[in-house]
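In response to reviewer comment 3 from the previous cycle, which asked for concrete evidence that the modeling workflow produces usable outputs, we include below a single protein chain processed end to end. The sequence was submitted unchanged, and the resulting structure tokens are shown without manual editing.
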Amino acid sequence: MPVFGSRDWYGNFACNFMYVQGISDFDDNSSVKLTQEDAEQRLSIALRIGKDKTPKYLFYDQIVSIEIKKKHGTRNRDLSISYHPANNPDDVKILLFEIVDASLHWRKFIGALKSKIPQPPEPEQLDSQPEPEVSQYL
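The workflow returned the following structure tokens.
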């Protein structure tokens, strides 16, 4: 396993980010490690320093979208994850992380995570042919 690889000891994709907002238990600007735990079908969010706090988990099917936003006037970027909370599936909340120098292989990490998000079913295409008229007479 390479020293600066994109996977953890179990073979899961992992990447470091700077936490910005969205989790009440975490302090702003904390260093976090996001891990794609495929066996459990979830994303693990754990503090890298102050590991006495338990990690938070977000199941892949809770994730609505993932976006990369470039900060205006800087070279920094933010990772935005929109999700449905487990206790209120109709609501949408956002987790915000900053991509920092320690975020090695972040493009590969985000690409793999996007591929695991369930896509909403496409609406059925209506048949363009008119239905034949049915006569009530035989």
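Residues 14-116 form a domain with the PH-domain like fold (CATH 2.30.29.30). We consider this sufficient to address the reviewer's concern, and the full set will be provided in the supplementary archive.
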